[in-house]
Design brief:
Radius of gyration: 17 Å
Number of helices: 5
Helix content: 25-40%
Largest sheet: 4 strands, parallel
CATH architecture: Alpha-Beta Complex
CATH topology: Ribosomal Protein L13p, Chain: A
Distance between the termini: 37 Å
Number of domains: 1
C-alpha cells in the first residue's frame, strides 16, 4: 500500500522572489505569483502545506490590462452599514491604491480558507520600485 508523502517542517525551504510588474499583463502576473506562493513549482508540492515562497511585486502601478477593463472592471466593497455598497473602477483603483489591484487578483487564485489567508500574507506588493526586503536577497521569479 502506498503512503502519502507529507513533508516535515525542517524539510520545507522558502525562498524570496521578486517580480517587476512593469508592462506585465495583470492576469498572467497574478497566476505566476499565485503558483509561487502555493509552491506548485516544487516537486514535493503537497496541498494544504505552506510549501510556497515569498513574493515581492514592485512597480504595481505600471501593470497593463487588455480591452476596456480599465473603465468596465469594477471593484465592490461594503462598509457594513445599510446602503454602504461602494464601487470603484480599475482605473481609479490603479491611481489611488495600485497594490490592491494585484492583491485582489492573486487572492482570487489561492484557496479561500485559512491556508489561503496564510499564503496571501507572504505576498508583498509595492507601487513603486523600492522595497524594504533587501536583506532577504530576493531572486527574480523564473
Amino acid at each position: 500500500m502506498q503512503k502519502t508523502y507529507y513533508p516535515k517542517k525542517d524539510e520545507i525551504a522558502s525562498d524570496w522572489y521578486m517580480v517587476d510588474a512593469t508592462g506585465m499583463n495583470l492576469g498572467r502576473l497574478a497566476t505566476r505569483v499565485a503558483q509561487a506562493l502555493m509552491g506548485k513549482h516544487k516537486p514535493q508540492f503537497t496541498p494544504g502545506v505552506l510549501m510556497g515562497d515569498y513574493v515581492i511585486v514592485i512597480n504595481a502601478e505600471k501593470i497593463e490590462v487588455t480591452g476596456r477593463k480599465l473603465d468596465e472592471k469594477v471593484y465592490y466593497r461594503h462598509t457594513g452599514y445599510p446602503g454602504g455598497l461602494k464601487k470603484i473602477t480599475l482605473r481609479e483603483q490603479l491611481e489611488r491604491f495600485p497594490e490592491r489591484v494585484i492583491q485582489s487578483a492573486v487572492w482570487g487564485m489561492v484557496p479561500h480558507n485559512r491556508h489561503g489567508r496564510k499564503l496571501i500574507q507572504r505576498l508583498k506588493v509595492y507601487a513603486g520600485g523600492d522595497h524594504p526586503h533587501g536583506a532577504q536577497k530576493p531572486k527574480p521569479l523564473p
